[in-house]
Amino acid sequence: MSALSSFIENPRNTMYDGEDNDEKILYVIRRSRITNLSWILLAVIMFFVPFLANPFLRSFKVAGVSLVSIKFVIIFTLSWYLATIGLAFFNFLNWYFNVYVITNKKIIDFDFFGITYKNITETTLYNVEDVTSTISGPFHTIFNIGDVFIQTAGEKREFDFVLVDNPGKVRDIISDLVAEKRDHHGNN
Amino acid sequence: MLNLFSPQGFSSIMQMLAMFIQVVYVLFSFMLTRQVKIMNRSFSTSMATPFSFFANLHFLVAVALVIMSLIIL
């Protein structure tokens, strides 16, 4: 599904809070899908835990009577699977909504940490000074994953596109958009 | 007086611990519904409705499990 892609060009049915009327979202970029492997693997492991844990819990006996009732085991199993689904959903949302949005006017970085923190940073394309892409490490090199750093007019580097697919292409897209914006400003 | 070192006592401790964890999880699932709402409002996509539905369903199931635990355990 393109909606779950880590690089979406001209996304449909997509808007952000604060979007101008004459603004058009050109790209939606997320961390590479490969970065989700860790929590997916954890969820798979968690799925199989009750198959091992339940017989183990039932094995605790005193005078032939199990310390852990079958009712407790049922509740434990249901709760465990709910927590597994909840954890997977939480991690998926963090991946899905931590996006970098490039419009015809701005670059916006949406950061959601945990369930209580939200940070949104935006800058106009005209403010972009330098764009750098970096790929480091054998794993990232094999899968073409890296970071894109955007220096805006100011001392502090404000935008880090972390672990995105094809960072060279992202860098190129931003550079071209910035050049086009500056040309447009120069002509006006 | 319940002997906490007896099988019944151990079982009671486990049940109380399980209930406590479940209640904490209900709070987490409620916070998750709020977070999904904020996320959808900040960045709206075609997946907004399924996300909201799933988050609310997840919360309701968490509450149902607590009620079920109170009844069964």
Protein architecture, described:
The complex is a heterodimer of chains A (188) and B (73). Chain A has 188 residues and is an alpha+beta fold. Chain A has helices spanning 37-58, 70-97, 138-143, 167-187; strands at residues 7-9, 15-16, 25-30, 61-62, 65-66, 99-103, 106-113, 117-124, 128-134, 145-152, 157-165. Chain A has 2 domains: 2-11 and 24-31 and 101-187, PH-domain like; 38-92. Chain A is built from 4 helices and 11 strands; from the N terminus they run E-E-E-H-E-E-H-E-E-E-E-H-E-E-H. In chain A, the strands form 3 sheets. Chain A has a 5-stranded antiparallel beta sheet. In chain A, helix 1 packs antiparallel against helix 2. Chain B has helices at 7-42, 48-72, and one strand at 43-44. Chain B is elongated, with a radius of gyration of 17 Å. Chain B contains 2 helices and 1 strand, in the order H-E-H. Chain B has a domain at 45-73. With 73 residues, chain B is mostly helical. The A-B interface holds A 3, 11-17, 62-63, 65, 67-69, 71-72, 74-76, 78-79, 82-83, 85-86, 89-90, 93, 96-97, 99, 101, 110, 112, 115-116, 118, 120 and B 7, 10-11, 14-15, 18, 21-22, 25, 28-29, 31-32, 34-36, 38-39, 41-47, 51, 54-55, 58, 61-62, 65, 68-69, 72-73. Strand 2 of chain A pairs antiparallel with strand 1 of chain B, so a sheet runs across the interface.
What would you say about this model in short?
The complex is a heterodimer of chains A (188) and B (73). With 188 residues, chain A is of the alpha+beta class. In chain A, 41% of the residues lie in helices and 32% in strands.
How many DSSP-defined strands of chain B? 1
Oligomer: heterodimer
CATH top level class name of the largest domain in chain A: Mainly Beta
What overall geometry of chain B do the principal axes of the alpha carbons give? elongated
In percent, how much strand structure appears in the residues of chain B?
under 5%
